[in-house]
């Protein structure tokens, strides 16, 4: 069956968005592809959402800035006790296959332009790790050929175990054997923004705990060619999902385990202004969980579309401004994943771009 279509007033939103796009010289876009005429929130260099609370997340700010091109140097600086801003320049191929790179507290890892890559390896945040920023990297190709389910490995892209204050932003994950991103065991104050999750089975899981402590913001991510856990959130105290884009779902013939967002256990989940295109089971909730959905667009979706309970109000925790759901395809496809302008400066940050400059990028 087809899911709900945009309601009354959506045409006015599209007209406004299209006018802004035209004013920026972005060319004519179809209504579903129109992008807002402003620099996206993800171009900022400070954490937003839950990662901004209770002291915020600053990573290695104030520490030495280093540039790494080898696994040995990445391991050395990422595991150090003191803060570092670590610029990853070029491709680092981890050895042995599936190797863990330990990331300690007070670190920023950022790719230089679109060239920073970790291949066949994992970034691992052990219990107690805090104040970590991981931005602008491609993490790819720990997939074991022919092992689609990956039950015998634990080769994640990024794994958090009881960590707190973590911002994961503008990365690309592709072909990881287990979870591309696993936020596990009571990790708290996490924001996951403007990432691309591609070509994977078990994509983005949250939980693996009987406790209900995790607070997580998930916004402006593109899930493309992924099968399940987009994300799956089990026993999250608060899971706020907005302006995410789900497309080209892998293996949609699976009647149960191909799905979009799942609120599980005692999770309280809020979904806002997202865009689901051709997705089976776009959002669903356990009977014990709560899920509020508002403002999303569903195109050619099938299966479970479940929302019940009051969940929570994200604005009780932080300010944010969701983009119109109709703008999500163009905005997320353009601005998610590694960006050419990030990671070049000596502080590994740069001022947010104004809309005119961003339109020329």
Automatic annotation (TrEMBL):
<dbReference type="Pfam" id="PF00544">
    <property type="entry name" value="Pectate_lyase_4"/>
</dbReference>
<keyword id="KW-0119">Carbohydrate metabolism</keyword>
<feature type="signal peptide">
    <location>
        <begin position="1"/>
        <end position="34"/>
    </location>
</feature>
<keyword id="KW-0964">Secreted</keyword>
<comment type="similarity">
    <text>Belongs to the polysaccharide lyase 1 family.</text>
</comment>
<dbReference type="InterPro" id="IPR002022">
    <property type="entry name" value="Pec_lyase"/>
</dbReference>
<keyword id="KW-0732">Signal</keyword>
<dbReference type="InterPro" id="IPR045032">
    <property type="entry name" value="PEL"/>
</dbReference>
<feature type="domain" description="Pectate lyase">
    <location>
        <begin position="64"/>
        <end position="281"/>
    </location>
</feature>
<feature type="region of interest" description="Disordered">
    <location>
        <begin position="337"/>
        <end position="361"/>
    </location>
</feature>
<protein>
    <submittedName>
        <fullName>Right-handed parallel beta-helix repeat-containing protein</fullName>
    </submittedName>
</protein>
<keyword id="KW-0456">Lyase</keyword>
<dbReference type="InterPro" id="IPR011050">
    <property type="entry name" value="Pectin_lyase_fold/virulence"/>
</dbReference>
<dbReference type="InterPro" id="IPR012334">
    <property type="entry name" value="Pectin_lyas_fold"/>
</dbReference>
<keyword id="KW-0624">Polysaccharide degradation</keyword>
């Amino acid at each position: 069956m087809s899911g709900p279509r945009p309601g009354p007033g959506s045409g006015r939103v599209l007209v406004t968005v299209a006018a802004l796009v035209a004013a920026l010289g972005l060319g004519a876009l179809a209504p579903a592809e129109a992008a807002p005429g402003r620099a996206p929130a993800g171009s900022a260099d400070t954490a937003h959402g839950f990662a901004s609370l209770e002291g915020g997340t600053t990573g290695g700010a104030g520490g030495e800035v280093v540039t790494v091109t080898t696994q040995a140097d990445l391991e050395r600086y990422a595991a150090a006790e003191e803060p570092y801003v670590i610029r990853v320049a070029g491709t680092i191929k981890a050895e042995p296959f599936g190797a863990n790179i330990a990331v300690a507290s007070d670190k920023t890892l950022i790719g230089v332009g679109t060239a920073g890559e970790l291949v066949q390896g994992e970034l691992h945040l052990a219990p107690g790790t805090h104040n970590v920023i991981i931005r602008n990297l491609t993490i790819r190709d720990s997939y074991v050929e022919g092992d689609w389910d990956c039950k015998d490995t634990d080769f994640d892209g990024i794994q958090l175990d009881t960590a707190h204050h973590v911002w994961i932003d503008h990365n690309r994950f592709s072909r990881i054997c287990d979870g591309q991103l696993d936020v596990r065991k009571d990790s708290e104050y996490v924001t996951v923004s403007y990432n691309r999750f591609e070509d994977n089975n078990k994509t983005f899981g949250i939980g693996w705990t009987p406790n209900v402590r995790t607070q997580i913001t998930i916004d402006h991510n593109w899930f493309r060619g992924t099968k399940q856990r987009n994300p799956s959130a089990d026993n999250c105290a608060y899971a706020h999902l907005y302006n995410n884009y789900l497309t080209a779902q892998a293996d949609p013939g699976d009647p149960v385990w191909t799905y979009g967002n799942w609120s599980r256990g005692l999770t309280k989940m809020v979904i806002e202004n997202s865009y689901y295109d051709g997705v089976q089971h776009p959002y669903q909730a356990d009977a014990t969980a709560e899920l509020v959905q508002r403002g999303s667009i569903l195109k050619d979706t099938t299966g479970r579309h479940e929302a019940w309970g009051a969940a929570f109000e994200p604005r009780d925790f932080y300010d944010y401004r969701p983009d119109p759901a109709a703008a999500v395809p163009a905005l997320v496809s353009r601005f998610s994943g590694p960006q050419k302008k990030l990671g070049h400066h000596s502080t590994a940050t740069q001022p947010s771009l104004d809309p005119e400059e961003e339109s020329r990028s």
